[in-house]
Backbone:
C-alpha cells in the first residue's frame, strides 16, 4: 500500500458504511486513521443501536458492489462464502412495476443479496486489516476543537461511554463527520461562526415494516428477490430479498403514514394488498424468525455544503450527513461508496481547498440519484414539490418505459442499469430506447384492445 503522505492523523466520526468507506479512502493518504463510534460492535451479522435501519432491507446496487470490490478486492466472494446470495441482478429478481413484471434474463450486472449487518461487518473487518486504521468503540463525539480564529478544525471533543465522565480531546489534521442523517455539523459550524448549509427536505413519511423468515428452495420457484414498486392508486411497496443463512427479509410499507401493522395478521393483510401476490404467497406459510419491526422515515434530506462560501479547513462532512435519500430507491450505501471514490480523487491532488473540492465532487455524485428519488416521489400526489413540465414528462415516460420493459428485455436491461447507477438516466432517452418504448406501448395497447 502506498501512503502518499498528506498528513499524520485523520479522524472519522461514525463507523457505519459511510465512515468505513471514507476511512478506506483516507488510509492511502494519512499515516493514521481513527474511527470514533458511539456503539460497541456486536458479533458479525447482529444489529446495533446506532444504525436502527440495519434491521430493514438493504439492497446494494450493482454500482455499489463494484466500488466495494475496488476498495476491498474479493469481498463479494468472502460474503458468498458466508452464504450471501450472488447473481445477476435482473435474472435473480422479479421486479413488478406498472402492473406487470419486467422481462428477466442475463443483464451482466452482478448483484449481492446480504443483510446490512453482515455487509457492514465484512467491510469493517477488511478495513481493520489495514495497518494504519483503528476504531475506538463506545465513544461519543461531543463537538469540534478548532484554532483560536476558528479557521481550522484541529480535532474533536469526545467522551468514552464507560464509567468515566471525563471528556477528552483527540487532535487530527482532518476530521470527517460521517455520523449520519442526524449529524450535528450544522450546529457545530454555527458555533464556530460559520453559516449552516441550506437544507432541502422532501417529506415522504414512508414506513418500512420488516420481518425475517426462513427461506425454502420451493419458494417463488427458486427466485431470489421480489421488488414491488409503489404505483397508483395505493403507492404501497414491498421487497422480499434472499439473505445469508437461508433467510428471507421482507419489508413492506407505504407513503404518508400508510403503515404495515406489526401484528401477524395485519402484516399479512398488508402484504396481501400489494399489487402482486408473490410476497404474500411466500410469507403466509414461511416460518417467521423475527417479530415485525417498524421504521418511520420522514423525508429525503440534502444539506448543500457545496454552496457555503466559508468553511473551516481540516473538516469534511460525508455520507448520509450530506444527503439521506428515501430508502425505497436503495441508493444510500452506493452513494457513500461513490463519495469515497470522489474523496480519494480529491486527495490525490493534495489537501489544498480540500473541503471546497470535495463538496463540489460529492454534490455531483448526489445530483442524479437525488433527482431520481425526489422526481420519482413527485408521482405521489401528497408529496410537496415543484412538478415542472419536465418532471411530469419524465415520470410519464418512465411509467411507459416500465410497461415496455415487461415485454422487451433490452428496455428492461437499460432500466436496470440506470436504477443500479451503472448508466446515467440519459441513456433511457436515447433514440433507440425511445423507439422501443413507443413500439412496446403501441403493441401493448393493440393486444389490450
Ligand atoms: C429504513 C432504511 C432502509 C435503507 N435501505 C437502504 C438500501 O436498501 N440500500 C442502500 O444503499 N441504503 C439504504 N439505506 C441508507 C443506508 O442505511 C445509509 O445510506 C448508510 O448507512 C450510510 O450512512 P452513513 O454511514 O452516512 O450514516 P449512518 O449509517 O446513519 O451511520 C452513522 C454512524 O455514526 C455513529 N454516530 C452518530 N453520532 C455519533 C457521535 N456523536 N459519536 C460517535 N459516533 C456517532 C452511529 O452510531 C452510526 O454508526 C436505508 C436507510 C434506511 C433508513
Residues:
Amino acid at each position: 500500500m502506498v501512503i502518499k503522505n498528506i498528513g499524520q492523523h485523520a479522524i472519522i466520526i461514525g463507523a457505519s458504511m459511510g465512515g468505513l468507506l471514507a476511512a478506506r479512502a483516507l488510509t492511502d493518504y494519512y499515516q493514521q486513521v481513527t474511527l470514533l463510534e458511539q456503539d460497541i460492535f456486536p458479533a458479525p451479522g447482529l444489529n446495533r443501536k446506532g444504525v436502527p435501519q440495519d434491521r430493514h432491507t438493504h439492497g446494494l446496487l450493482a454500482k455499489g458492489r463494484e466500488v466495494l470490490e475496488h476498495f476491498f478486492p474479493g469481498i463479494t466472494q468472502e460474503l458468498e462464502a458466508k452464504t450471501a446470495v450472488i447473481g445477476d441482478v435482473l435474472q435473480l429478481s422479479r421486479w413488478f412495476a406498472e402492473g406487470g413484471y419486467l422481462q428477466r434474463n442475463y443483464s451482466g450486472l452482478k448483484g449481492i443479496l446480504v443483510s446490512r449487518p453482515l455487509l457492514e461487518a465484512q467491510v469493517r473487518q477488511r478495513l481493520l486489516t489495514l495497518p494504519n486504521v483503528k476504531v475506538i468503540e463506545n465513544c461519543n463525539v461531543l463537538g469540534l476543537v478548532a484554532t483560536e480564529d476558528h479557521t481550522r478544525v484541529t480535532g474533536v471533543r469526545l467522551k468514552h461511554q464507560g464509567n468515566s465522565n471525563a471528556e477528552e480531546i483527540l487532535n487530527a489534521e482532518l476530521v470527517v463527520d460521517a455520523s449520519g442523517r442526524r449529524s450535528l455539523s450544522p450546529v457545530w459550524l454555527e458555533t464556530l461562526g460559520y453559516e449552516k448549509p441550506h437544507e432541502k427536505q422532501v417529506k415522504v413519511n414512508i414506513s418500512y415494516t420488516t420481518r425475517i423468515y426462513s427461506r425454502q428452495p420451493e419458494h417463488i420457484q427458486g427466485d431470489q428477490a421480489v421488488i414491488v414498486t409503489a404505483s397508483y392508486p395505493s403507492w404501497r411497496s414491498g421487497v422480499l430479498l434472499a439473505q445469508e443463512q437461508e433467510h428471507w427479509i421482507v419489508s413492506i410499507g407505504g407513503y404518508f403514514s400508510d403503515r404495515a401493522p406489526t401484528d401477524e395478521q395485519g402484516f399479512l393483510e398488508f402484504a396481501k394488498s400489494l399489487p402482486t401476490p408473490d410476497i404474500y404467497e411466500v410469507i403466509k406459510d414461511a416460518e417467521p424468525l423475527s417479530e415485525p419491526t417498524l421504521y418511520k422515515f420522514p423525508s429525503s434530506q440534502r444539506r448543500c455544503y457545496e454552496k457555503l462560501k466559508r468553511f473551516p479547513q481540516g473538516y469534511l462532512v460525508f455520507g448520509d450527513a450530506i444527503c439521506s435519500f428515501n430508502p425505497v430507491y436503495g441508493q444510500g450505501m452506493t452513494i457513500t461508496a461513490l463519495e469515497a471514490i470522489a474523496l480519494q480523487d480529491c486527495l490525490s491532488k493534495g489537501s489544498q481547498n480540500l473541503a471546497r473540492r470535495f463538496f463540489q465532487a460529492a454534490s455531483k455524485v448526489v445530483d442524479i440519484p437525488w433527482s431520481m428519488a425526489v422526481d420519482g416521489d413527485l408521482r405521489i400526489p401528497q408529496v410537496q414539490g415543484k412538478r415542472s413540465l419536465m418532471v411530469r414528462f419524465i415520470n410519464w415516460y418512465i411509467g411507459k418505459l416500465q410497461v415496455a420493459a415487461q415485454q422487451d428485455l433490452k428496455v428492461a436491461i437499460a432500466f436496470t442499469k440506470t436504477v443500479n447507477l451503472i448508466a446515467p438516466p440519459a441513456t433511457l432517452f436515447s433514440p433507440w430506447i425511445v423507439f422501443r418504448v413507443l413500439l412496446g406501448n403501441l403493441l401493448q395497447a393493440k393486444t389490450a384492445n
